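User: I'm writing a short report section on ligand binding and want a predicted complex to refer to. Could you take this sequence and flavin-adenine dinucleotide and write out the structure as tokens? A short remark afterwards would be nice.
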Amino acid sequence: MEFSRSSEQDAFLDTVRTFARERVAPRAAEIDASGAFPTDLTQEASALGLMGMTLPVAAGGQGQSYATYAAALEIVSGASATLAVILSVNNSLVAEPLHECGSDVQKATWLRRLASGAALGAFALSEVQAGSDAGNQQTAARLDEQGYVISGHKVWVANAEVADVAIVFAVTHPGVRGRGISAFLVPLDSPGIVRESAPDSLGVRGLGCVDLRFDDVRVDADALLGEPGHGFRLAMRALEGGRIAIAAQSLGVGQAALDEAVAYALRREAFGQPIGNFQAIQFQLADLATDLEAARMLTWKAADTRDRAPRATAEAAMAKLQASEAAHRAADRAMQILASKGYRRGSTIERLFRDVRASEIYQGTSEVQRMIIAEHVLA
Ligand SMILES: Cc1cc2nc3c(=O)[nH]c(=O)nc-3n(C[C@H](O)[C@H](O)[C@H](O)COP(=O)(O)OP(=O)(O)OC[C@H]3O[C@@H](n4cnc5c(N)ncnc54)[C@H](O)[C@@H]3O)c2cc1C
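Assistant: Sure. The structure tokens for the complex follow:
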């Protein structure tokens, strides 16, 4: 496992750090309060190359390693968890599978646009009855002489409020669950697609989450992404990268919570001294720092595996499980240390406390990660 970074990677991360500190952090509270998709920040992130980080340079990307991508997402997430998720969806769940499985025409049409910010991508897998049980898809794609006709209803599709294109999963061969699902690359302005507002969200607000209704949406046969019946496999491969990204996003939130707690412990006085002098506070900070560092190591290991090996299934699941739960613990303990200063609407820790919770839910709940890890352990 490689921990060192080249000077170019360091320079890239320095640029991301400056962007996060100067452009993103000042906007985080307002994005949270309004719940509005931050189109302008997404464009600025695109101009810095944050939309196609792991794509080869020849495909319009930055050619960064997965470890550098994860480090960049952690930095962005420390400023705004919402922006980090927006970037992770476009990078891991749309651009990467398109690069891996797309036809020459699909790549020529979309890849550079997705990497440059000229277009934004979304990933439409979940349905009302198909969350953890993602193989239980009801959206169907029927083949006729002119192509496919897609009908169904997707829920909680991040970025989709403003996205230009989505990878949409639909059943092409009924009755065989995962083996009957195909993936389609669907422009979201296709006739018959209705963007419906999703429920108001507790955290990571401003993600542009909407439900998507497909009413007999006609697409050409060449909208198929990869082989027919290989959609579920494509989704699971994309989610491996996505879970590493969510681990990194969780770390950004967890580290921000720890930083808040440390700063407060140094300045808040009780019983005539800073509360950071009390061992009860010190031990909490020590445990959180250790917990997050362990999660960071797992995240880097998963990223390194993604770069070097054909699959990183268990590594990605372990990284996401540990990082999302460690970040949750960090936000919870930081809230305890800030006490009434944290437990008020509009405090930073209040936002982090809400933002962190989704990491244990999207791209596979903690229970789903444990199922994947258990299968690996028992194999
Ligand atoms: C903010 C946000 C953004 C999202 N973005 C996207 C997106 O861009 N694209 C997309 O496709 N989806 C997206 N989702 C949906 C997300 O992936 C699902 O919510 C998630 O997979 C869980 O599905 P569910 O909510 O239907 O819960 P369910 O699957 O109904 O699970 C309910 C509970 O049962 C548990 N459970 C289920 N099965 C088992 C089992 N076999 N063993 C043990 N426990 C089990 C779960 O862990 C959970 O605790 C998003 C969700 C959120 C909240």
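A remark for your report: The first strand starts at residue 121 and ends at 124. The mean pLDDT is 97.
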